[in-house]
Amino acid sequence: MENKRTCLYDKHVAMGALIQPFGGFDMPIQYTSIIEEHQAVRQHCGVFDVSHMGEVYVTGKDAERYVNHIFTNDVKGAPVGKIYYGMMLYPDGGTVDDLLVYKMGENEYFIVINAANIDKDVEWMRRHTEGFDVTLDHCSDYYGQLAVQGPEAEGVVEEVLGLACKELEFYTCKTIDTAGETIIISRTGYTGEDGFEIYGSHAFINGAWDALMASGRCKPCGLGCRDTLRFEVGLPLYGDELSQDISPIMAGLGMFCKLEKEEFIGKDALVEQKANGVARRLRGIELQAHAVPRHGYKVLKDGREVGEVTTGYRLISTDKSCAVALVDSNVKLGDRVDIQIRKKNFPGTVVKKKFYDKHYHK
């Protein structure tokens, strides 16, 4: 089956981007270099085409109750404009997907899901509408999405795109009527820096991309540096740090699972995991050497295999070799471990999963 393409695909090709498959789409991985693009976001402003993400509108008189049923976080009584991060779970506590829920209006929610999981997620959401008076509108094909990220993002969005955004607090959103349509703008981000997401029609997103590129005030960024940026600040990637086999408790994301809620799919499993512990959990590892750990590499403690790497990099912001690994629960902060890289063992120390401080909008 052929990969899908975003509404900006031809522009990426024209700019000489390295295109590779990701989540069922042909996506730009880098334009110049991952290091250059990473530093642009950390120091100035970078723009990502994230139109591959999926979007679903949930409306109807039971919308709040339905979202709370399929979602680990608690949207009850949320003010309009508030955004929540959380997960959809299988009954055994494994993760269907991690997602963002935007409260757009009374009985109106906008749910943003990962590209690789769109079909699976929408099917899962539809399957669990029974008993709820709700309508699901799968609108992924309508929306394009840009992420404008970095310490200069606010000025770029306000001045280059003419979109008022400075009043938005972190994890809030609003709609703006412009160019004959209603766009959504939010302030979340997946880089550890301040930034905005803009959702609009393909025509609007194409125009916004052109204006941003012509401004000279921001750099086009591919998914390569999106991964290095999110990894440094300890943000998970579905398929690596969350999966059908990795629950939010194992991933250290229990804060986004409101166990005091009446019920949600997977709650009983999480309650049991919190009470009795889990066999494995995610830990950070900092290597002493310059070797680069990769997904799937074995983690050893006292010569015995105790887990494997989910993501690893030579960090661009700190110049250290670090990994996140799913390891046995008895592996604690401060422990000495080895990562096996091409049949050679490299010593490291177990540390927190956040290797670089976030600089979000306060």
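[next item in queue]
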Amino acid sequence: MFSHNKRLQYTVRVSESNPGLANLMLEQFGGPQGELAAACRYFTQALGEDDPGRKDMLFDISTEELSHLEIIGTIVGMLNKGAKGRLAEGVEEQGELYRSITGAGNDSHLTQVLYGGGPALVNSAGVPWTAAYIDSIGEPTADLRSNIAAEARAKIVYERLINLTDDPGVKEALGFLMTREIAPQKSFEKALYAITPNFPPGKLPGDPRFTSVYFRMSKGEPELRGPWNQGGKWDFMPMTQDSAPVGGGDGLATVELSAEEAPVVAQMAARTQSARDGDPLTGAELGIGGEDGLAPDADLVGPDPEGLVRKPLK
């Protein structure tokens, strides 16, 4: 059961209307790193969670994310308030009104016209919110790592938004939202490391022949090494065109076909085989005209065993 408290989790004070800034704020309302995506991600994870402690944690954090959604949506609405009134009441000349809502140099005019200045479930570029932003897979050790990364990305977006405004009230509210991206990261990390073992994700172990191998797939200098590919925990293996397949064998793919399948596949291969001899005339060559060395008035004849050919007209 949910109930709504009319007071915001954090008090918002906006100094002046700014529809351009409001449009940028939509990134954290309906964008991939935004509060709605976070709330839905953790809420759906909670519904499927079997551990009662993690279930409570996910429900708590997802509910707070909805509080953050309310804060950022309120900021959007307040920044749009003046332009919304002017546009709704038509109190200015059309040209002046258009300039006032497009002066920020972004798509804020679309937000005003399509959504009346209200917070829409789109990002700052007008792309609609989608459930595809939710990347949960139902394995706690994988989802918790994804959650940590999601909170980190959201923090970075808030930092960028803070750098875009000099409105002290907006900066203060964004600072709170940015800070609250840190605490869930800590909770998710603690929950992750409370699972033993938690790496690699899932139940099945990796093949020990490959779990600690670093394949050097690029060539050229400098060859930079670090703790990600050197030391006693790594087997560093440069790979070249002449390297043998790492799993043995000849590196070629094979398939066993049934007695019924084999002749049909052979028939299909023969029918679609490309001829290796001859030089068939193509539509591109026809468009080139005489640039291929043949007379531009050459006549097209064929087909013949060597494909389409041209011979000079007589």
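[queue empty]
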